[in-house]
Amino acid sequence: MADQAAGAVVGRVEALWRYPVKSMLGEPLQAATVGPGGLLGDRSFALWDHATGRVASAKNPRLWKELLGFTAQCLEPEGPKAGPGAVAITAPAEQGMGQERARVLSSDPEVNSWLGQRLGRRVSLLDQAPERASLDQYWPPVQERDFQDVVNELVLPSGTFFDSCPIHAISSASLERLRQLEPELDFAVERFRPNLLIRPESGASGFVEEAWIGRSLAVGPTLRLQVNDGCPRCVVTTLSQGGLPEDLEILRATARHNNVVAGIRLSVIQPGEMRVGDVVRLLN
Asked: pTM for this one?
């Protein structure tokens, strides 16, 4: 506790989210329990595509951009030692018409057929990542004379459905800086799918969280996080989701102004609780 008290205050937690099923819309939280592997319930599930033998991800929008129309929500209670509890999955509004069920539980024996019918592919909902699980990620051309238009394989960290680190944060200052540079674009925080949005101390501006890389953060009374690196953005930021329209310029703007980076990736040093409003301190 002493090192946390000595750390310089750099901001406060403004918002929290978790995403129970990979690439589906998540749920805002007022408080979260963070274990060694990240927020309890975050990316607890993912869809397995039988045709490709890969995890389904909106990083390959040619196959999976529709996932961002589904919403996933953890069902309580969920204790600190619990495994992935049941999740409720809600279909996009346009798929909830007529007599069809608009919602299914992860524990429902028909969950795979329910999802497969709506996605048009044979899928299984998994709560354990297969050995060397991977996904396809599409890289669009984002800069002038950029010849990227490729899909490559991303191997996920062992035993998880994360792309890399278990926690992702972004500051409101980074989003505001992008808005200043490209005022005609909508840099809604939801496009970036963070676990926590940090509002820096008054007067801080620019991509402030990148100065924290290599150091640790104390969030609230006990939680400590290691800031590993900046978060390279991908095509998911450009896709239609939660009422936001598709816009490739979002990704192009991060390329023009910050080498395609917005936010930071973190891992857990010491588990704990965090709440909206918690002070964030920079350590060591």
From this structure: 0.91
